[in-house]
Structures are given as C-alpha cells and as structure tokens.
C-alpha cells in the first residue's frame, strides 16, 4: 500500500498544481520529481512548486499518524513555499494581507489565526460526525478562510489526504480536468449556503476509486484500459465511461486513463 501511494505522488502533484494553472505536464512533473530532469524553458516557480509539493506529500505518506496541528500546517506551508515566497512561507496572513479568489474575499487577516485554531481544534475534538463530513467541512472552511498569502489550494488538498491517511485510508487525487465541473462549484455552494455535502460526495467517489485501484493492483493478474474491457464485454464506450465516473464498476484512473481489472464480470454482483 505504501509503495502504491509513493508511486502516485507525481500524479497527485501534477493534478494539484494543474488546478492552480501550472503549465507543467504529467511527464514534466515526473521528470522533475523522479529523475531531477529540468528543461531550460520551464518556469522556475513551477519547478519549485512540483519539488516542494512532492516533498511534503512524501513526508505525510511516511508520517500518516502525525496529529493535525497548527504547527504541522505551518511547517508544511513553509516547505511548500520555500524558494517561491520565503517572506510569507510558514505563517498565516496578517496585517493588511488580504486575498481575493474571484469575487470571494478570504477571511480578515486580523482573525485568520483564531479561525484556524478553532477549525483545527474542532476537527480534533469532534468524534461523532461521519468522517467524510468532517473532512469535507474542514476542506470547505479552510479554503474559505484562505489562511495563507499563497499555496492555499495545494495545502488544502494536502491536508485532505493527510486526514484520510490518518484514518488508515488511501489518499485521493482530485482531477484537474474536472475542476470547473466537479470541484470549484462546490466552493461557491458552500460560500452561498454553508452546505458542504457536495464535497462529501466528491471525496466518497474519489476514495472509492482509490480503493478500487489498490484492490486491482494487489489482486488482479491483468489491468486493461476501460475501452478494451468495454469492447470485450459488448458495452458502448460512453456507457462504460459513465459507469466508471459513477463508480458503479471497479474502474480507476491511471495517468488520466480509465483502467479496470480484465477479469471483472459486468454481470457479477460483487467485484
């Protein structure tokens, strides 16, 4: 399980940075993280973003049980922005450091520290709420507060995975290609209504996909593209894709391509 998660780091880093409009491709990200290969035409900031995010992701994979604290969050943020914005790395916004995300203003910098302490304290103290609801609320509120001068999106997704791993669950990958349809609109809903159940649903689907991926890698003799499986089983490609997106079949994405165990029987009740 650990090796699978470590192998996913380039995909996690690529998608999280791409959500923030990084121009690096998955192949670029793999070269930078795995092979320390850098092209002269690549943006220096984006290179640091890839390296730094990979570093904190690997740290949390190796330390999944470390308690979520303000100190941990600040330490991770310091590493995330090292070489990028050292003057604001490892500290919350303060004084007149306002941030705007589209039409939304992050929390008043005078109150950011207290808001974050309340958020972390509530997360650690409430043991009765459904775990994905707790994580969904934390993510929605963290991004609404926008506690840092930069790196809030990447930090929020990193903390989300830390929370999952602390519960002995695998990390998830929020896909950059669907950010305008399945991710960003959920923040607008939360800001307008304080409803975060959309995040719960998204995280549940992505967690299911992550579990399917691990089950397949650990138990299936052969994994094939979904298109090949659909053709073999006489299923239209669009129907197979819809089933995969709804997670009604044990399909999962690898390198942005839907895959599935070759032995899966579409007519079976269980996988």
Task: Describe this protein's structure.
- This protein is mainly alpha-helical.
- 58% of the residues lie in helices and 6% in strands.
- It contains 11 helices and 5 strands; from the N terminus they run H-H-H-H-E-E-H-H-H-H-H-E-H-H-E-E.
- The strands form 2 sheets. A 3-stranded antiparallel beta sheet has the order 3-5-4.
- A hairpin with a 2-residue loop joins strand 1 and strand 2.
- Helix 6 crosses helix 8 and helix 6 crosses helix 9.
SSE inventory with pairings:
Layout: H1 2-19, H2 26-34, H3 44-62, H4 70-81, E1 100-101, E2 104-105, H5 112-125, H6 131-145, H7 152-166, H8 179-193, H9 197-219, E3 223-225, H10 226-232, H11 237-246, E4 252-254, E5 257-261
Antiparallel strand pairs: 1-2, 3-5, 4-5
Helix pairs in contact: 1-2, 1-3, 3-4, 3-7, 5-6, 6-7, 6-8, 6-9, 10-11
């Amino acid at each position: 399980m650990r090796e699978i998660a470590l192998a996913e780091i380039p995909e996690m880093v690529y998608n999280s940075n791409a959500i923030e409009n990084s121009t690096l491709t998955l192949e670029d990200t793999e070269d930078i993280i795995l092979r320390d290969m850098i092209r002269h035409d690549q943006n220096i900031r984006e290179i640091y973003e890839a390296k730094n995010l990979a570093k904190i992701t690997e740290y949390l994979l190796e330390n999944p049980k470390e308690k979520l604290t303000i100190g941990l969050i600040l330490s991770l943020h310091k590493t995330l922005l090292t070489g990028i914005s050292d003057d604001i790395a490892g500290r919350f916004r303060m004084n007149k450091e306002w941030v705007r995300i589209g039409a939304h203003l992050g929390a008043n910098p005078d109150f950011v520290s207290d808001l974050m302490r309340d958020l972390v304290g509530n997360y650690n103290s409430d043991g009765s709420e459904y775990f994905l609801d707790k994580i969904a609320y934390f993510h929605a509120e963290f991004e609404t507060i926008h506690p840092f001068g930069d790196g809030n999106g990447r930090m929020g997704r990193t903390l989300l995975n830390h929370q999952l791993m602390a519960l002995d669950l695998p990390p998830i990958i929020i896909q950059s290609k669907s950010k305008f349809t399945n991710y960003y609109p959920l923040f607008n809903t939360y800001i307008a209504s304080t409803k975060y159940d959309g995040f719960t649903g998204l995280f549940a689907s992505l967690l299911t996909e992550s579990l399917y991926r691990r089950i397949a890698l650990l138990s299936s003799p052969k994994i094939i593209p979904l298109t090949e499986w659909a053709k073999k089983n006489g299923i239209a490609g669009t129907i197979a894709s819809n089933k995969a997106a709804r997670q009604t079949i044990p399909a999962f994405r690898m390198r942005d391509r839907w895959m599935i165990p070759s032995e899966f029987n579409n007519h079976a009740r269980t996988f």
